[in-house]
Amino acid sequence: MAKPSATQTDANNPHPRSRLVMAALRIFAEKGFEGATTRDICELAGANISAIRYYFGDKAGLYRAAFTEPMCDAPCHTHIEAYASLALPEALHLFFREFLDPLKKGEEVRLVMKLHFREMIEPTGAWQQEIDAEIKPQHEALVSLLEQHLGLKGVDSDAHRLAFAIIGMAVQYYVGHEVVSAICPELLDTPEAIDTLSERLAGYAAAMIEGEAKRRLLGPGHEGH
Predict the structure, then answer these.
(1) Which domain holds residue 189?
(2) Which of 99, 172, 189, 203 has the largest count of CB atoms under 10 Å?
């Protein structure tokens, strides 16, 4: 029998799998993988402990789900193949809109960031899996977009530098979420504000790419190595 997805049946009665993921996110973020118990997670989720084996296989499988799923209901690079077919402004806007859309989930984002920071201190291998499955394909898609727009014959170090700089603008709103909210809360306090942020970052990125294109025209002495 096929296992139900993590999609919630409705706002007031989330699916048991969704309840387990959210309960695990909260407890893993607070206690880490070793300190969290499946009994505590199931008690918070209102689920039978056998549900963990049914939906996730084991505690490690539940941890991986809590580490990745709240930020991305589907693979974050679902539309990567669409970037190449779009004009640069539209491609950048799509990139940032997808990248920042999880910020609309509010408290879930704060819990995910707490869990991610804990993973850096108490590694389980989840980060490497995330890099391979999501972060690296996303970076490669952006580098490919830069290669196409800048007319490069191959990707060089400066293309990677520019890609990391562009992505870094968006990453700041995750890593520095609490700082941004304390200094200028209106930047993140509504879905509409986050959509506006996506548009602005796309514009900033386009200006950065234009600047890099001009720099490359200055001659070989300005190329990356």
Answers:
(1) 74-222
(2) 99
